[in-house]
Amino acid sequence: MTDGVEILPVRGIGDVTPGDDLAALILGAAPWVRDGDVLVVTSKVVSKAEGRLVEVPADGPEREAARAQALESETARVVARRGPTVIVQTHHGFVMAAGGIDASNVDKTHLVLLPADPDASARALRAALRARGRDVAVIISDTMGRAWRNGLTDVALGAAGLPALRDHRGEIDPYGNELQLTQMAVADELASAGELVKGKSDQVPVAVVRGIPGVGQDDGVGAATLLRDGASDMFSLGTAEARAAGLRDAATMPETLPGGIVDPQAVDRALVTVAEMIAPGTLVRPAEVLPENGATAGLLVTPPGTSAADLVRLGADAQRLRASLAAEGIASASLPHEDGLLLALSAAGGVR
Amino acid sequence: MTDGVEILPVRGIGDVTPGDDLAALILGAAPWVRDGDVLVVTSKVVSKAEGRLVEVPADGPEREAARAQALESETARVVARRGPTVIVQTHHGFVMAAGGIDASNVDKTHLVLLPADPDASARALRAALRARGRDVAVIISDTMGRAWRNGLTDVALGAAGLPALRDHRGEIDPYGNELQLTQMAVADELASAGELVKGKSDQVPVAVVRGIPGVGQDDGVGAATLLRDGASDMFSLGTAEARAAGLRDAATMPETLPGGIVDPQAVDRALVTVAEMIAPGTLVRPAEVLPENGATAGLLVTPPGTSAADLVRLGADAQRLRASLAAEGIASASLPHEDGLLLALSAAGGVR
């Protein structure tokens, strides 16, 4: 740990334009920067220096169209949408409203994109500062929203010269418990700390954090390590989008069985879910199935009659039941049966 | 803005036990605390002082059962579950892994719960510090995971004496643009800044942040204002859970029509989604519907034949189509028709 940390604003950097030498501007404004400091640099001035600007009309529908086009080119996938808010994952992997494209702190005929590779930007700025005699770490920061919590915080888009994560796993607390959690996203915490002395009007685009141990020789792996990959992200889609995907899953359910053992309680839950929706008089009961094709359980659905309407309704009801089973992680296939419809079941890896 | 911020660790507080006077312990260890400081206090020492402990067996299945019971009593709803990880919303409204229940930094026969009302805890601690002659702000912090990003950060569970949000809306940047975004979650940023000088072993349970403007007379609304309500949260459920909910939506689709005008392009998308799944030879075409019951468009589904199997399949295919339409925000109702099945449609407020 540390004896204390200072966070110092860097004022007087002024307007940054494409081609500017950011290291020179920073040290011109803050000649007091010293070895071991962490410089938290607002991504916007990095983008401006790197010329990551898009020319757009100052107003009107053409401006909106140009803005939509810029968003599309920055977007790898749409994560969630509600009204005018679009949250996307950028090609970098950041999940941000409007892809991090910003129209503030720039003249009305330009939009500012995120740096193309913020870790590379951090490394380059760090190298330029070292060339001017200062051995520091660099964090490129931006403002992001979060799930579940109101308000925005600054996080690290790029980092060089210190580990973005601090790992406490395996440490023992004073009671002898091994710490479980606990990779701390220290680069994000530094970005947030830096924001405390910065404004939103970019007159203080750089904060210096002094007293952080671990500013190293190596650039390190950068802030990309803070990006959660899709496979480990439990919130890769907005709730409404995932729910719509579930409806599409129901629309396109295959009639194939992965072969897992079915939990009878899950079947019971699925039956309870649809009980009110199925034609009165319909019987649903456990049935023997041949284990071929992966079936490990079966349900026989018998309609109350054999009119054309009864049969159409049987098909619809069986499909409701199949969707309800799928919600419990159970795949199904429909087989003809003299008493109605036989659903062959097996546990799926699908939705659960 | 500020001339700079200092973050100072408070060491030597030692073990905290139920009934301890936290204000006395803090000022005993840090007599240098002064008016205007922000004290970031790890929630665990607040919980311990308040006796928010649950006795549990030191090991074995009984320990796991007691732990599960504690989690259940802290949980308002389960947000997401994957393997051993359970993310819940607590009765306070926090979305946290394991409901914020912690087994570290406490002896093996106890679990530590979150403070019952962290804003009240912050106000009480602030009042106790003021009674001892220090006019400060207090933040109760804890470590949380985030969607989309690896690593944990500290955030504010409770706050008193400063605004948890800093509002920049309506401010004008140097280019004349009105700032849009931008309520900053300053209490969370302070919690993260405090974490930079704290350890994970609770030997530094308090950080003092000095130089933050806005430490006020009033306690303010507290950190509860940082909790996003369900209605405005686009990520109120894990993706897998929301997808399963979508499957249940398909299983329980009502046959009622809210009456909105149907977008023909949305119908086309819905048809494309299920095209491969529907019995070969089935015809789906636009059809007139009576505007009674809210229908604003119609689709006639005609099966390739009239055998019992054709009719069962017609019912299933129509249900697939209805789920696909629902994914596009279109509600439907099935009506008998001499040529098959007529789906009456209208736009829904449902999933979109």
TrEMBL record, chains A, B:
One of its GO terms (molecular function) is metal ion binding. Keywords: GTP-binding, Ligase, Magnesium, Manganese, Metal-binding, Nucleotide-binding, Potassium. InterPro entries: F420-0_g-glutamyl_ligase, F420-0_gamma-glut_ligase-dom. Residues 14-211 form the Coenzyme F420:L-glutamate ligase-like domain. Pfam families: F420_ligase. This is Coenzyme F420:L-glutamate ligase-like domain-containing protein. It comes from Mangrovihabitans endophyticus.
